[in-house]
């Protein structure tokens, strides 16, 4: 058994020496703090900023649609107002009123005896 333990001891020493040789060639760096938390916070902030930007763009597009809808409604109302003005002018025309008075109401122009001058 001593032969097996001696072999194991030699292997252990060889590993230790090779590990020491490797570390002697390398510079030793001071231990770094884990930056994972900082990266998570930065990525979360970036993600929230991207969401906020997308939300702002959606609101701008919706506002544009609203403006377009109200502009179309305004033009329709202007057309309707013009149509109603034309109809009002047609209904108020003296020729139309005279025609209705003669045909529907049976009225006529008064003669000289039917007129009275008020002081």
Description of the molecule:
It is rod-shaped and about 155 Å long. It is an all-alpha fold and 119 residues long. The protein has helices at residues 2-25, 36-91, 94-103. It has a domain at 69-105. 76% of the residues lie in helices and 0% in strands. The model has no long low-confidence stretch (mean pLDDT 86). The chain has three helices and no strands.
How much is the average pLDDT? 86
Helix content: over 70%
The Cα radius of gyration reads 50 Å
Q: List segments where confidence is low: pLDDT < 50 over at least 5 consecutive residues.
A: none
Characterize this entry briefly.
It is built from three helices and no strands. By secondary structure, it is an all-alpha fold. It starts with a helix and ends in a 16-residue tail after the last helix.
Task: Indicate the topology.
Blueprint (H helix, E strand, L loop, with lengths): L1 H24 L10 H56 L2 H10 L16
List the keywords.
119 residues, mainly alpha, 0% strand, rod-shaped
